[in-house]
UniProtKB/TrEMBL annotation:
The keyword Oxidoreductase applies. This is Protocatechuate 3,4-dioxygenase subunit beta. SUPFAM superfamilies: Aromatic compound dioxygenase. Pfam families: Dioxygenase_C (PF00775), PCDO_beta_N (PF12391). Residues 1-23 are annotated as: Disordered. It is an enzyme of class 1 (oxidoreductase). One of its GO terms (biological process) is 3,4-dihydroxybenzoate catabolic process. Residues 1-12 have a biased composition (Basic and acidic residues). Residues 88-116 form the Intradiol ring-cleavage dioxygenases domain. Keywords: Dioxygenase, Oxidoreductase. Belongs to the intradiol ring-cleavage dioxygenase family. It comes from Paracoccus caeni.
């Protein structure tokens, strides 16, 4: 993306919102997902108004993004991380398929063995000394983004006697300010653990689950180097991606 891109941030006419099927969004209280029992609100939610500063800033500029910020294979130490190299790419679009430019997209993930670089992650898989597991980029004028990373490993978690999280990447999408943040997860086509995951099972409709699964994209794969997966993020409307923190979208 360059400074003279043909579609500046505010040039997209978003128009009226399309209604969406709110049944796509998981219920806050889902006993099959154990931690939701203690996290679910026990009282009605209260909507808080936002201020102008929360709605309009701070903005993210191109000069805040480093050359390797979207390259998780090299951006920690400069030495290559261990694991299956993949390209994870897509577009951030509105309900009519129009790309949203200058959106800050951040990702974080476990390493190829299924372990996060976090002091509270006690999984037996070893840490990769050259992999931090996080990256960021700004979308281009057409809403496109791209990350080079390793495919994350599955890992066990104490939901029940033998629960495993599928391979997944966490996504954070910022709008024009910190108050406009959406968070979701991306899974990978063909992973048999998706249908077994208690978190995924909280999503009521199959189409909603499928919208979180990135299909293999052989057209973007690099021969003798890496496979590619495409994960498009729809911000509003009936086709909107399922977000963890705001069912109404951005």
């Amino acid at each position: 993306m360059t400074q003279d891109s043909p579609h500046p941030r505010n040039s997209v006419d978003r128009g009226a919102l399309y209604p969406r099927d709110r049944d796509w969004h998981p219920a806050a209280y889902t006993p099959g997902y154990k931690t939701s029992v203690t996290r679910a609100p026990s009282r009605p939610l209260v909507a808080l108004g936002s201020t102008l500063s929360e709605e309009t800033g701070p903005a993210f500029g191109q000069n805040a993004i480093g050359d390797l910020d979207n390259n998780l294979i090299l951006n920690f130490t400069g030495q290559p991380a261990i694991g299956e190299r993949i390209i994870l790419h897509g577009r951030v679009v509105d309900e009519n398929g129009r790309g949203i430019p200058n959106v800050l997209v951040e990702i974080w993930q476990a390493n190829a063995g299924g372990r996060y670089r976090h002091k509270k992650d006690g999984y037996l898989a070893p840490l990769d000394p050259n992999f931090a597991g996080c990256g960021r980029c700004l979308t281009a004028w057409d809403g496109s983004y791209e990350f080079l990373t390793v495919r994350p490993g599955a890992y066990p978690w104490p939901n029940d006697v033998n629960s495993w999280r599928p391979m997944h990447v966490h996504f954070s999408v910022f709008g024009t300010g910190f108050g406009q943040r959406l968070i979701t997860q991306c899974y990978f086509q063909g992973d048999p653990l998706i249908d077994l995951c208690p978190i995924v099972k909280t999503i009521g409709q199959r189409k909603a689950i499928e919208s979180l699964v990135a299909p293999l994209d052989m057209n973007r794969a690099i021969p003798m180097d890496c496979l590619a997966y495409q994960f498009d993020i729809v911000l509003r409307g009936r086709r909107q991606s399922v977000f963890e923190n705001r069912m109404e979208g951005m």
